[in-house]
Write a structure and sequence with these properties.
- There is one protein chain.
- The protein is of the alpha+beta class.
- Strands 3-5-4 form a three-stranded antiparallel sheet. A two-stranded antiparallel ribbon has the order 1-2.
- β1 and β2 form a beta hairpin.
- It is found in: Secreted.
- InterPro entries: LCR.
């Protein structure tokens, strides 16, 4: 798009009205789309991310979920038993979706 000059904002406004940017460190005009909005709050989704074990149980599962569904997703998790004996415990993650 060229250098950082008055043309940057004008040129970018036609492509992405709220996403224009001028990178002053490399003196380059960048036209980036605005980031997508976060999902609506209030709905919680869940997904199993693998088996639990003696090595990785509730605390470990919770850390993995928090990492995988970070930020506005507010991920957290625990080991649960959806189908029977304890050997089938699954790390279930809960997050905003």
């Amino acid at each position: 798009m060229g250098g950082c000059d008055p043309q940057c904002q004008t040129g970018c406004a036609g492509k992405h009205p709220s996403g224009q940017s001028c990178d002053a460190t490399i003196k380059t005009c960048k036209c980036l789309p605005p980031p997508p909005p976060p999902p609506p709050k209030g709905k919680t989704c869940h997904v199993g991310i693998g088996p639990c074990s003696a090595k990785c149980y509730d605390d470990c599962c919770n850390e993995k979920c928090a990492e995988r569904f970070a930020g506005y997703l507010q991920g957290h998790g625990s080991c649960e038993n959806p189908i029977g004996p304890a050997r089938f415990n699954v790390c279930m993650c809960y997050f905003q979706c």
